Structures are given as C-alpha cells and as structure tokens.
Amino acid sequence: MLSLIARRLLQSIPTLWVVATATFLLLRLAPGGPFDDEKPIPPEIKAQIEAHYGLDLPLYQQYFQFFGNLLKGDLGPSYKYPGWDVQEIIIQAFPVSLELGCWALLISLALGIPIGTLAALKHNKPAETNLMAVAMIGICLPSFVIGPILLMTFSLKLGWFNPLGWSYAGDRVLPAITLGLLYAAYIARLARSGMLDVMRNDYIRTARAKGLKERTVVMRHALRTALYPVVAYMGPAAAGLISGSFVVETIFFIPGMGPFFVNAALNRDYTMVMGTVLFYATLIILFNLLVDIVQMWMNPRTRND
Amino acid sequence: MVTLLTQRLPTGFLILLALGFFAGCAKKKSNVERGNANHELYIGIGTEPSGLDPQLTTGLTEYSVMTALLEGLTTLDAETMQVRPGVAQYWEISEDGLTYTFHFAPDALWSNGDSVTAADFLFSFERILTPSLGAPYAYMLYPMRGAEAFNRGELTDFSQVGVRAVGDAKLIIELESPTPYFLSLLAHNTWWPVHPPSILKHGAMNDRISKWTKPGNYVGNGPFILKRWRLNSEIYAVKNPYYRDIENVHLNGLHFLPIEPQAEERSFRAGHLHVTSTVPIHRIDWYRANQPERMRFDTSLAVYYYMLNTSHGAFKDPRVRKALAYSINREEITAHVLKAGQQPAYHFTPPNAGGYNAEARLPHDPELARQLLAEAGFPEGKDFPTFELLYNTSESHRTIAVAIQQMWKTELGIDIELHNQEWKAYLSTRESGEFDILRAAWFGDYDDPNTFLSLGQTDNGNNHSQWSNAEYDQLILDAAIEQNPAARMALFQQAEAILLDEMPFIPIYFYVTSRLIDPAVQGWYPSILGNHPYQAISLED
Do A160 and B21 touch (CB under 8 A)? Predict the structure, then answer.
C-alpha cells in the first residue's frame, strides 16, 4: 500500500510538469498581456513594468525562472493585484471553497445515493421514472438557473436567508444546495446503474435464498459493490467541488477560489493562472489517489494490482 | 462501514441542514439597518480594485476607494465640483500662471499622527515619475516643468524638476505652460501624497510589488483608515481620528463590496447595500415603475464611439466616414437599447466638460449620407467592400453593433460583419491596428475638453485611427499655452469642428452612470467625474 502511494506520488511529478509547461506556453500564446488596459500605457512605461516582472527576458529564461521559484515553493506575486502573492490569495480563498464544497458533497451524496438506489430497486416501475426524472432535471438545470431561483424564493421572497455573503451559518445553505444538486443528479444515475448491475449477481440471489430480508440484502450485500462507480466518480468530482465554482460563488458573492480561476485567465495574470492551475491539478491527483485507496479497500480483487 | 454511513448520514445531515436553516431564519438585521444605526455605509463597487496605491492605479473603482484613504493638495466640492482646499489651505498663482505656491494646513496629518509635509509631496512626485516604477498614469504630472523628461529618463536629477519645498509647510510647483485646469488636476489620485516611511519600510521607492497597501501598513491622510481587506469580499475603512477636518466627517465606517451587477441589485433589494455601482439594464424599467426615487442617473464625462481605421481602403475617404456617421439614428439607440437616459452624441466632447459645450454638430441625415457615399464612388452602397466591426465581448456592445449594422444596411446599402473578441485579445488587436472599425470609449480624467480632444492628436497613444491632421495638432498645442480662457475654448471649438469634418471617430452616445441609492443616504450629489467625497455623506434613519 505504501509503495503504491509512493509510486503514484512520483508519477504525479511528470504529470504536474506537463500541466505547468502546457499552461505556461498557452498563456504566452494568448493575445494580449497582463498590462494591457483600456487606456493604453506609454510603451516605455510598459517596458519598465514588464522588466519588473522579468517579462522582458527570453521565454526560456522566464520558464526556468518560474520553475526555479516553484521549486522554492514560491508562486510569485499576482500581476493583477500588486501587493498580493498568489499563495496568499489561495490560502485566503481555498478554505471557503473547501467548506462550501464539503457541504455540497454531503448534499449530493445524501440525495444521490438514496435516489439512485431506490430507483434501481423499483426498476421498471413508475417510481423509477419519477425519481430519474427528478435527477434529469438536476442535470439539465445549470446552477446559474437554480441559484437565482433559490435565491429569489428563499431569500428575497421569504427572507429566510441572506441573499449573499459568507458571514453566517445560514449563508451556507443556498449555495451548498445549488452546487450539490448537480452532483446529486450524476450520483443518482451512477448509483442506479451500479445497483441494477449488482442485483443480477449470483451472490445476491444466494443472499435472498438464505431468506434474508430485502433491506439487509440491499444494505449489507449490494450497496458496497453498487457504489463502486460512484466512488470512482468522487475523485474528480470532489476536486472540482472544493476548488470552487465560478458560477455559484459569483451568484452568492462568496470569497472562494472560483472567481480567481476564471478572472486570472481573463486578466492574463500569468502567475495567478499558473498557481491556480497547479493547485487544481494537485488536488485532482490527490483525490484520484484517495479514490484508488478507497476502491482497494472496497474491492479486495484490486488490492494486488 | 458503508452501510453505517448510508444509514446515518442522511439523518445527521438533515439535522445539520435544519440547524443551518434556523440560523438563517433567526431574524437578523440587514446591513442597511445596521449601517444606519452605526453610521456605516455599505457601498457596491462592482469589481475588486486592482490595488490601493494611488500612483499605480488608474481606474474609477480604485479611485472611489482611495478617495476615502488619501487626500491631495486640493479637493473637489461634492456638490459644486469647485476646487476646495485639501492639504493646501490656500495658494498663490503667479501672474504668468506658471508658478503655484501652496501653503499647507497646519492640522494636515497622516493617520499615524505625523504631519503631512512638503517633503512628502516631493517624495511622492519623484516616486510616480521614477521610470522604473512604471506608473501607468505618470503623464498626468507632465504639466509640471521637467516631469516628462524625468519620467522618460532624459533627466536623472529630480531636483531639476519644477517642484520644491520651502520648509515643511510650503510647496512650490512650476509648470511647463499655464494649465487652466491645474488645480482640479491636483485632486486626481496621481497627484496625491504617499507616506514615505511606510513605502520605504516595505521596499524601495520604486517597488511595484509592495505590502504597504495592506491593512495595518497603510498610512493615509484621508478621512478614513483601511481596516480590513479581503479580496473579492470586502474592504472596510473606519474614521481617521487624525483627519484635519474630522468634525465634518459624518460616517464612522465604509464597507466596499465588489459584487457583480446582478447580485448587487438583489443585494440592494434585500437591504444589504446603501449604494450600488450600477443598475442592470433589465431592471431599469422595474425601478422606474416601482421605486423611481431609489434610482439615480448621472451624466458622466465619457463618450462611447466607433474608431475608424483611416488607413484602410474606403475609410481613407472622409466622405465615407461621414456617411457612416450621419446615417446612425442615435436617438433610437439611447431610447430603445440603452434606456438609462444616455445622451445621443452629435459631437465628440461630452457636454459641459470644464464649461465647454461643443458648437459643431454632426447631423442625423441619411439622405446626405447616401449622397456623400455616392460622391465617394459607392452609389447606394454598390461595390462597397465588406468590412468588420470589432467590439469587446459584451451583450450591450453587441446590441448596439447589431442596431448600427442594420441602420447601415437599410440607409446606405452596405454590409458589415460583426466580430467580437474577449477583452485582452481586443486590446491587442487595437494596439496592432488590424481593424476596420473598433468600438471605443473614453472617460475624462479631469474636467476639461483637453482630456477628450487630445485623443485626436497624431502622437497620442490612444489614437489608433491612424488619422493625422497638422492643423488639428497645432490647435491642441496652442490651447495648452493659451492663457485667456475664452480664447482657449475657441481653439477647442475649432479643433472639434475639424474632428467632426474629418470624422476619424464616430461619436455614438454620452455615458450615464446609474445607481440605486437607499433613501437613508444623504449628501450623494451627481458628479460627472464619479467624485463622491465620503465626508459629504451621512445616513438618516
């Protein structure tokens, strides 16, 4: 197990290197630079600014400089927000997205698994169609529709929640639901198909033949295997959830990572883009590793791979 | 384990959800209620400021925050826009209009208790003009003698620049040429002082990347002090006990919230903002019908226009450029597309810029436009080459472009293609000159026609039209040194007439700022430069 973790972590180094290099090159290929603005600045001033950030150096030197700093654990200063370091911004914003993502993850699991399981157990009955229709709606309605609808109803009409912000416990509810619903729908579909597969297996027939109650058959014997695809999906899903959603965080004015991801690219804030992309890539790698470990624990057959 | 999780989780989770729910239900005071009780203003600023260093920032958003934290030699009156004393209590101007002597208010202090001295201003001017700082707006100081040479690196000794301190409380500034708007220029953030020990504590004078603008480090001389700053969340400033005019500061604190317009409007509706940065277009009709008293429209000192590339094919001919300009129905655009009371632009400089109102007018005359186009060799638009209209990606730019595309099609019989680019790509294309027609806008930096008409000068960095006219250039140069105000305005009138006759820029409309303002807010006056001093504002329950 430990050797597997060590091996996977070593493998992640070239992956991150490729991601960083590709991002570095794509950024320089994009038209426009970080210091272009509505009112263009005199060329000699722009040259001074670029010299300040080492952007006047040949590309390969900038590249080595960037990796040198990265190895020292320095992501550099944000170009868009002078005085703020990229690390500083991530450290400030990530806990917010992490918390929101965890709530959303809980909601998606708490809704998705029961709905999917129930739908599978009621296979070919109207209940299945109804449940899966609900899940389809969850997938089809994007968060920029659900978010404002929830907001209008529960905040502006009923006054139960603040319309935006992240100051009180109640501020978590609407954004977490908005973000969680989409994932809940996917999870429901995965859980349903997983459950349908499992219920056809011989060992389930055996369990039933032993005279076990249906509830026990499902809970104790079927569910663990049925959730296999859900767990596989959880890796990228969790990384995506906790690294912040641009849409949800903008709608509810939550100071998380989401807006930084998108705006950094739009602003050509080179260091910020590199920082957020590498951060996200690292999260995905870690979560995929975590998922592999969980799967091994769930399915003994994969343990000796 | 898994069974345990699946059995217990939903129940446990529902309890948590219910808890959160009740926390939300408990009737809390809204920001506005709390703000009115504590005299703290909650103001939406639309986007996160890119910084709070007055010598490095350029935007109105940044200005609207920094104006709480810093103060220049002069200030502008909230209601009348007249120049008022700031750090300088009074001043003398020499006969020839070239030398200004400022006498400092004895009670002008920094927020740490230090006196604001003439040496602080010398340091600040040197800092912004130091080439290696790369201050994008350093040119705002160019009216000062030697400032441009120093900023371009042609002069390395700052003592050669026309500014000197006499003791702590007297500052003498010499100008290149008499600059009638100089006193109002001093109210712009590029002329504001910074606290030298704070700058030097966190880096060198020319460090762009410095921590001095962080809460706790920021020493200012404005009515408020920076207390808290969290990106994409809030900037919070509290009353500065050392402010020279503290008895006239009514508010105890300011909360600046960088919320995007849609969310901002919802927030205002729920009572969480006193003032918004704008009103989303689709909500204007609702407010007009239901709460007109909460919606304010102010004319801005800004023009929306199309820039023509006068070196491209058919656009070389001024008759073609005029035909395009005359066939646009601007009333149609302002009344049905924009709706917020924008003024159709029949000349380039916005009305009442430093008391100047352009006399030259371009007509809305499709008949004349067709005639001009025919004279240029394209009767009824025949054989007119197709060309591209470039705008930066935005719903409102697109709507306007589509309307104008249609007008040119029906009135002149010419076809254009619409092309949009994301902001930075658009800027890059503009810089390279690879466009036919480009959407553009200009927001005046100071209250004077020069900030607009200098855009047409051949060597102006913002003139991407390739248009060059020696007579025009000379008129703008003459206006810069003309001392008689009436004669100066007459020079601008001539320049404007040339601009409209040559038509490198097609003016479309003059901007309006729209805001939602809570009835509790007192002392928020219309301002064409977006200048709303927080000293003037108070909250009434």
Answer: yes
User: Where does residue A184 rank: exposed (0-12), middle (13-18), buried (19+ CB within 10 A)?
Assistant: buried
Selected residue of A38, A81, A153 to mutate for chain B interface (largest B Cβ count, 10 A): A38
**How many Cα atoms are found within 13 Å in the side-chain-facing hemisphere of B117?**
13
Size of interface A-B (CB pairs under 8 A): 184
pLDDT tens column, B492-508 = 999 999 999 999 999 99
- With beta carbons under 8 A apart, name residues in chain A contacting B214: 83
Judge: B263–A260 Cβ closer than 8 Å, yes or no: no
**C-alpha R_g of chain A:** 24
Query: What is the interface pTM, i.e. ipTM, of the complex?
Result: 0.85
Query: How would DSSP label each residue in A79-141?
Result: SSSTT-BHHHHHHHHHHHHHHHHHHHHHHHHHHHHHHHHHHHHTTTSHHHHHHHHHHHHHHHS
Best residue of A27, A29, A48 to probe chain B, by most B CBs closer than 10 Å? A48
Of A37, A113, A170, the CB nearest to B24: A170
Query: B231 to chain A: which residues are within 8 Å by CB?
Result: 81, 84, 89, 92-93, 255, 260
pLDDT single digits (tens) B407-465: 999 999 999 999 999 888 898 888 888 899 999 999 888 888 999 999 999 988 889 99
For A116, the token pair is 């999917």
Within a 10 A sphere around the Cβ of B90, how many other Cβ atoms?
10
- Chain B closest-CA separation from residue A111 CA (Å): 8
- Strands B437-443 and B387-392: what pairing? parallel
Under 8 Å between Cβ of A260 and A93 = yes
Query: How many other β-carbons are positioned within 10 Å of the β-carbon of residue B209?
Result: 16
Which helix (DSSP H) or strand (DSSP E) does residue B374 occupy?
helix B366-375
The C-alpha atoms of residue B246 and residue B239 are separated, in whole angstroms, by 8
Torsion A275-A279-A280-A284 (CA) sign: positive
On whether the CB atoms of residues A253 and A152 are closer than 8 A, the answer is: no
Distance CA B109, CA B121 (A): 13
Alpha carbon distance B512, A48 (integer Å): 35
Q: B142 in contact with A at a CB cutoff of 8 Å?
A: no
Mean model confidence pLDDT for chain B: 90
Sheet of strand B99-104, all strands in order from the earlier edge strand to the far edge: B88-93, B99-104, B170-174, B163-165
Q: What is the pTM of this model?
A: 0.87
From the list A234, A245, A276, the residue with the least C-alpha distance to A86 is A276
Q: Is the dihedral of CA B83, B84, B87, B92 positive or negative?
A: positive
